[in-house]
Amino acid sequence: MSGTGARENIFATRMALTNTKLRLKGAQTGHSLLAKKRDALTTRFRAILRKVDEAKRKMGRVMQLASFSMAEVTYATGDISYLVQEQAKQATFRVKTKQENVSGVVLPTFEVDRVPGSDFNLTGLGRGGQQVLKAKEVYAKAIETLVELASLQTAFTILDEVIRATNRRVNAIEHVVMPRLENTIKYIISELDEMDREEFFRLKKVQGKKKRDNAAAEAQRLADAAERGEEPQEDEPEAEATEDLLSSKDNDVIF
Amino acid sequence: MTTSFKNRNLLAVIGDEDSITGLLLAGIGHINEHQKNFLVVDSKTQVSTIEAAFQEFTERKDIAILLINQHIAEKIRPTVDKYSQAFPSLLEIPSKDHPYDPSKDSILKRVQKLFGE
To answer: Transmembrane residues, as ranges (chain B) (predicted)?
Structure first.
């Protein structure tokens, strides 16, 4: 018996065999679909990986520039950090989130959403106003880069997670579900064969018994006939019964 | 996981004074009654304060991106490395005194690992 490996605990019937075969087919389809999904995601993932790497390096440069312009401001205006921290009220630099769909996975992307106006209209009014304005612009540019990087990174995190889940599913189907179904099918087939053989054996046994009984009955009859001193003459009708059907024309047969 | 990003539109910062000032100048500062979206870290700031701010910013529902200076992220590195949520997305940024070191970035570390290096 194919009792090797895990199989499902079902009763071996032809219907169960059909069902299991259908399920195996379903599992194979699902497996190939998931594998395709995984490939699509991985392609996307690789592209994003490269971009993340680039963007991170770019961010390093941009932030350096921004720090430099901040230093200019400090040189021209003096320390404005306290002032700025106290005057910040409402964010004018916000992000909007949009969605993008990559083979059934929703990836958010951030977009810069700037509201005109500023909390810092008076900063640098006395001196260094130009530097402050410049720093503002440079930092805004830097944050744009950061936002871009953030969407890449979010996509990276989500894709990473989804790819892992998909991989788990692909492997589960390949190494657990499909072998189990195959084992079940093997088991059912072997059980059915076994039943067939049993049935055949049973029929043979029955026939053997019948033959024996018939022989016994015949012997009995012969014995009885011998006792009465007669010759058995009842072979004739039996011979008629086994006559060839094709040679005789039956009236009921129309064509 | 991906359902709760509609209302997120703010940026938050944990950083040193200069970085914060610059970012605020660009207009990311947002203060309402009892909470602000930035934390100024100097040499006297306790690690526990940074941790608390990090927790607060990552749990707030209106923050899309959390920026943190890399040298500050170093101080709470275990927490940062453990952080794996998609939202808010965490970005380590360089500061004036500490140039960017890609080898320390928690995301880039994973990138490197995935490239098999």
So the answer is: none
